[in-house]
Structures are given as C-alpha cells and as structure tokens.
C-alpha cells in the first residue's frame, strides 16, 4: 500500500511537471506579433502583473504596442503610487513602437506636478513613433484657481510627429496651438470640451487632417481653410459667447453641424460661412443665424436641415439664403419653408410642430418649386407643453386646387 502511494505521488508530480513545461513551452513559442496582440487587451495594472508572474511576460510587457493609463477617483496615495509605476515603466520601455497610447486621468491634486509627468510619457510615446494618441483629462473645479484657467500645453513634438495619424483630446482646459510651423501626417483630430482660439484653426488649416470633430469646443471664432479636409463635425450647445464659424475645403464631402442656442443672450451674433463645392452630405440642426453663407453645393446628394426660430421673428429672407444653396440636392429633409426652385429634389421629408394656417401657404410655395418630387413625407411633433392647435382652415378642396 505504501509502495502504491509513492508510485501515485511520483506519477502525479511527473504529470504536473509535464503540464508546467508544456505551458512554458507554449508561451515561449508564441510569435511576438501574437503576443503583442494579446497584450493589447490588457490594462496597465494587468500588464505589470503579467511581468511579475511570467518570465516571458517580463520580456513582452515592455514592448506592448497598446497602452492605456487610467486613474479615476483614486485617493492621493494610490494615485501617487500609480504615477511612480508608470514613470518606471515608460523609462525602461525602450524605443519599441507604440500604436495606441491612451491616458484617461482625473487629476487628484496639483495639475502642474501630475501634468508634467504626463507630458514626459507623451514625449516617450512620440519617440516610440506613436500612431494613435488619446487624452481624456478631467480637472476638478476645486483645483482650479479660476474657471477655465488651467492651460494644457502639449509638447511641440506632438504636432510635428510624422508617425501620428489620430489625435483625440477631451479636457476642460485651455488648449494652446503650436507657436511655429511644423509638418505632420495627422489625418484624424477630435477635440472635446477644450477652450481654444482661432490660432488652433490656423494650425489645422496647415495640417493634412481629413476628419475634424469639434464637440463643445469653447471658441469665439473658428476658421479652417484646409485643402485636405474631407469630413467636418461641429457640435456646439449651451454656450453664449459670440461665435463665428468658417469652414472651407474643396475636398469636403460631409458636414454635420448641430449648433443649438439654449439660454441664449438676445444680442448675441453668430455667423456661418461654408465653401465646399464638392459636398455630398449636409446635416444642420439648430437655429437660423444672424448671417449664413453656404455658397453653392454642386454635388450635394442629401441634405438634412432642421432650423428653428424664436417666436414670431422668423426671417424668411434669411431662410431663403439657406435654400438657395440647395438647388441641386436630390434628397431633402427640412423644416425651412419658403419659396425656392429645387428642380432636382425627388424626396422631401418635413418635420413640423403642427399643420397650422400660417404654415400651409409656405408649404404650398415650397412644393411648387419641386417639379420632380416623387416622395413626400410629413411628420408632426406637437409639443406636450403647448395647447392643442386649432384645426387647419385649409380643407381638401384647397389642396386639390394647388
């Protein structure tokens, strides 16, 4: 019996050794490309743990092509320890290429101290030929000396990084544009919640950016004249500063603008200038501005226009300026109703609050300017806060006569 137990123990230990050796062999024989793909799914903490428990992990971890550093709602000591860990990792990383570098950070105390160390990480990422750079930085109000007073200055080498293809910045601070001229291969730029000035637009105009996305960017005026820009998205709400937007580019094929004015100041002036002769898709949600010049769209295939007005101050001449730019569009979804000749429109969708007597003549006028219209789609959005509208005085006889 004792001999049998020893035999079983020996067999068990040999099996465990075979399994262990097999596991080591499997990890050792993994190609670097496969290992890098696996490491791309690990957060920084798991990446460090892997290096601590695996010999091959210590070999592969420093060359991980995708890095994400995140600190959300951590106490000061934990965040300080994390900062030190990231510092050590980045210093010993070497020059292995970084494809995706992301920092999702909530500052716990001094922005200057944490920001300085963060900028050193970005410098190393640029040295490692980073392709995608994402910065989501939250600065608590209690750490600000004054509202919107914190300034984020990226290392100048970021704007001149030839390997960088995509840059996303989401932070409630002032973003400074580079002072000098520099060339880059940046194709995608997304700015969210930042505060900047028109100098940033000038830098964008000098770049080769193809896609530009601006979400809640606080700016007095913004001008972009880019020979490479193909897609432009502008989302700007709940902000009362005067704003003048000018976008120009012969390669522009897509423009989406959502420019809502909620809690607006009555004497605020806003203007929109667009030069995009080859535009194919236009979506504009918001309100009629004091001044808008859309130019002529020679290749426009689809337009979605949802423009509201305040009370009785509807400016039909202003709305006509918008319609005049859409004469060649094929599909039109709109809320602006004035007389215009739209010969190419075959599909029309109108979203209205209610079919009231003052709206019907304008609709008739619009439809008369569309001789090739084949599909008409009407949709009403009656407000729950308004009294039930009166019945329309225009009966079927009137519609038939028109």
3D structure, described in words:
This protein is α/β, with parallel strands linked by helices and 402 residues long. It has helices spanning 2-28, 32-39, 44-53, 55-60, 76-91, 111-127, 156-159, 198-206, 316-324, 360-368, 396-401, and strands at 66-71, 100-106, 132-138, 151-152, 166-171, 174-175, 188-192, 211-215, 221-225, 231-236, 243-248, 254-259, 270-275, 281-287, 291-293, 302-308, 331-334, 347-352, 375-380. The strands form 3 sheets. A 13-stranded parallel beta sheet has the order 1-2-3-5-7-8-10-12-14-16-17-18-19, with helices on one face. A 4-stranded parallel beta sheet has the order 9-11-13-15. It has a two-stranded parallel sheet with strand order 4-6. β1 (66-71), α5 (76-91) and β2 (100-106) form a beta-alpha-beta unit. The N and C termini lie far apart (106 Å). Residues 11-23 and 142-148 have low confidence and may be disordered.
Blueprint of the fold:
Blueprint: H1 2-28, H2 32-39, H3 44-53, H4 55-60, E1 66-71, H5 76-91, E2 100-106, H6 111-127, E3 132-138, E4 151-152, H7 156-159, E5 166-171, E6 174-175, E7 188-192, H8 198-206, E8 211-215, E9 221-225, E10 231-236, E11 243-248, E12 254-259, E13 270-275, E14 281-287, E15 291-293, E16 302-308, H9 316-324, E17 331-334, E18 347-352, H10 360-368, E19 375-380, H11 396-401
Helix pairs in contact: 5-6
């Amino acid at each position: 019996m004792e001999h049998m137990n020893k035999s079983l123990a020996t067999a068990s230990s040999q099996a465990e050794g075979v399994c262990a050796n097999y596991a080591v062999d499997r990890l050792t024989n993994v190609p670097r490309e496969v290992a890098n793909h696996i490491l791309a799914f690990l957060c920084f903490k798991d990446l460090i743990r892997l290096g601590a428990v695996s010999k091959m992990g210590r070999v592969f971890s420093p060359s991980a092509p995708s890095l994400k550093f995140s600190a959300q709602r951590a106490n000061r000591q934990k965040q300080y320890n994390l900062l030190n860990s990231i510092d050590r990792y980045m210093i010993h990383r070497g020059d292995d290429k970084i494809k995706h570098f992301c920092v999702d950070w909530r500052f716990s105390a001094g922005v200057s101290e944490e920001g300085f160390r963060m900028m050193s990480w970005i410098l190393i990422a640029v040295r490692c030929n980073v392709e995608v750079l994402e910065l989501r930085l939250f600065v608590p109000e209690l750490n600000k000396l004054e509202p919107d007073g914190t300034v984020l200055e990226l290392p100048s080498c970021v704007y001149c990084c030839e390997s960088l293809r995509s840059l996303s910045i989401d932070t409630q601070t002032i973003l400074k544009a580079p002072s000098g001229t520099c060339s880059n291969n940046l194709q995608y730029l997304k700015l969210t919640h930042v505060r900047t000035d028109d100098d940033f637009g000038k830098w964008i105009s000098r770049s080769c950016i193809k896609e530009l996305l601006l979400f809640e960017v606080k700016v007095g005026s913004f001008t972009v004249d880019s020979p490479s820009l193909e897609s432009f998205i502008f989302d700007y709400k709940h902000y009362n500063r005067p704003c003048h937007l000018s976008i120009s580019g012969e390669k522009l094929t897509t423009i989406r603008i959502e420019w809502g004015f909620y809690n607006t100041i009555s004497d605020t002036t806003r203007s929109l200038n667009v030069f995009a002769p080859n535009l194919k898709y236009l979506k504009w949600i918001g309100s009629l501005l004091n001044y808008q010049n859309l130019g002529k769209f020679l290749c426009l295939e689809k337009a979605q226009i949802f423009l509201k007005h305040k009370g009785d101050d509807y400016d039909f001449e202003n709305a006509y300026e918008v319609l005049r730019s859409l004469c060649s569009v094929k599909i039109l979804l709109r809320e602006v109703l004035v007389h215009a000749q739209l010969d190419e429109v075959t599909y029309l969708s109108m979203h209205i609050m209610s079919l009231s007597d003052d709206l019907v003549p304008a609709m008739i006028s619009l439809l008369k300017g569309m001789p090739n219209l084949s599909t008409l789609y009407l949709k009403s959005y009656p407000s729950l806060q308004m009294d039930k509208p009166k019945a329309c005085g225009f009966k079927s006889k009137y519609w038939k006569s028109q």
